[in-house]
Amino acid sequence: MGMFDRITLSKQFKKRIADERPRLYRMAYAWCCDPALADDLAQEAIAKGLQKAGQLREAERLQSWLYAILHNCWRTHLRRQRPDQPLDEEAFPCDECPETVNQRQQVVDRVRGAIKTLPLGQREVITLVDLKGFAYAEVAQILDIPIGTVMSRLSRARQALLVSLADVQQQPQTTIRTSLRRVK
């Protein structure tokens, strides 16, 4: 490849990255709901993409690669913001208070009961994906079923759990998050 080809490819590559800017901005805005911050995040993602262009191995994956960079920029921003947030006393209830322990156990029991009512195939998939953290492809290999079946069973199981646990969702989010994390 001659020098002219490299310059042309470089210009084409830069243009493709620049063409992704509106989509990156929209995604960043959806995450942060702040136009100025979204603009900064999109710009930072583009700058890092241009700076680290040599790390992109497959040109077809440019869009997903840029979204991954944007996501990392967003996470970095969130990490920087943590020390500035005031502590809310209600956000940190007593973990060992009888009331909290009882609420947590009730939610755990409800979730376990709801999972037990699912058909076996859905129960297997939801426990492997949501509770154990396996990827869809890994679950497909474990259960020896197509990945599409994994996705459809998981979707049906989640919908069934949403319906059966609708009243649990009405409780304060801190209690639910803590309780569901303990189910894992």
Please give a structural write-up.
Keywords: DNA-binding, Sigma factor, Transcription, Transcription regulation. This is RNA polymerase sigma factor. One of its GO terms (biological process) is DNA-templated transcription initiation. The chain has 2 domains: 85 residues, Orthogonal Bundle (Rna Polymerase Sigma Factor, Chain: A), CATH 1.10.1740.10; 84 residues, Arc Repressor Mutant, subunit A, CATH 1.10.10. The termini are far apart. The chain contains 9 helices and no strands. It has 184 residues and is an all-alpha fold.
Total DSSP helices: 9
What is the count of structural domains?
A: 2
* N-to-C order of helices and strands: HHHHHHHHH
Shape: extended
Question: Which structural category fits the helices and strands?
Answer: mainly alpha
The Cα radius of gyration reads 23 Å
Q: Find the count of extended strands (DSSP E, 2+ residues).
A: 0
Main beta sheet: none
**Uncertain runs:** 1-9, 173-184
CATH superfamily of the largest domain: RNA polymerase sigma factor, region 2, helix turn helix motif
CATH class of the largest domain: Mainly Alpha
Helix content: over 70%
> Would you tell me which CATH topology of the largest domain applies?
Rna Polymerase Sigma Factor, Chain: A
Mean pLDDT: 79
Distance from first to last alpha carbon:
54 Å
* Strand content range: under 5%
Task: Provide a compact summary of the structure.
Keywords: DNA-binding, Sigma factor, Transcription, Transcription regulation. By secondary structure, this protein is mostly helical. Helix content is 73%, strand content 0%.
